């Protein structure tokens, strides 16, 4: 299943600088930067590191968010993290919600994983050592999963478009949920590659893509329930019917692609979902 996300660029801890002569470019190590005083094809002056964030309007329960209602000294929205002291009722209120966007993926490595500054068990800091001085546990033992990554190929596309990509479609999959030891349903979660990066599609997609993704997700959920609980022929028949529907959608997708191929002599647009939009 595909869902839309916003693309936001924010400067790092260094002050940002933009002018009519500044330009986005990608550092050899993959970092995104704005370079001031561009002359011809060369870069001159100071480079200002940037990070990209994919955001949406999901309810904020944990993790990171961007607050457009609170600006920093340079006039940019602030990046904040949910803490025990955070008033979730306030930031999710209907009056505040338009200004709060949840961060669901980023190029910022500080958000990829979270390692505490002190041992959660002993409340002893790791200062001067990577091990707790009391229980000797390595600090990475307490590292928790953070925000998914945005791949460098998208950064390359963003630079090529000079920041004009404002929205993307992200791929989701069904995640089995349990209440204790009992199955309680499914919840959509971002589908990730093996390297932890999100799967990105352009906003303008084949109209059958979303329908196919939804049908395949429903089939996956059906197969799971049948395997776990219902092994009757009636439910297996439903699965066969869903397979036929998915096959029909795929055939319609092919027909759509053929009917929209460029005319002879027209090069059209070569689309790599992660690169061109």
List the helices and strands and how they pair.
Elements (H helix, E strand, L loop, with lengths): L1 E10 L11 E4 L5 E4 L11 E10 L7 E8 L5 E5 L6 H4 L8 E7 L6 E2 L29 E2 L6 H9 L6 E13 L2 E9 L9 E2 L5 H22 L4 H27 L18
Antiparallel strand pairs: 1-4, 1-10, 2-3, 3-4, 4-7, 5-6, 5-7, 8-9, 10-11, 10-12
Please bin the fraction of helical residues: 10-25%
Q: Regions with pLDDT < 50 over 5+ consecutive residues?
A: 15-20, 262-273
Order of helices and strands: EEEEEEHEEEHEEEHH
- Report the β-strand fraction as a percent range: 25-35%
The total of beta strands comes to 12
Secondary structure category? alpha+beta
- Structural shape: globular
Q: What does the average pLDDT come to?
A: 75
DSSP helical segment count: 4
Note the gap between the termini. 19 Å
Q: Based on the structure, what is the oligomeric state of the protein chains? A: single chain
| Largest beta-sheet details | 10 strands, antiparallel
Radius of gyration: 23 Å
